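thread: overnight batch results

M.L. [08:02]
morning all. the overnight job finished for the chain we discussed friday. pasting input first so we're all looking at the same thing
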Amino acid sequence: MFRIETLRSFGIKPYVMPYRDFENKRTPSQYEKDLAQYVNKPMIFKSCTFAEFSPRKGFKCQTYLQ
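M.L. [08:03]
and the structure it wrote out:
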């Protein structure tokens, strides 16, 4: 989050890509998917903070930050 917010303060739009290994044995966590969804969609990234973002009905990303 520190890197994302620092890039935002410089006016740079970051791109988040969840890590996957070459053999695809590791699947991204739900947190990684939600963060990528938030950052990689400019309309969402510019309109709210990650804590306010709601990727699924009834869920706010504020729970990740506690």
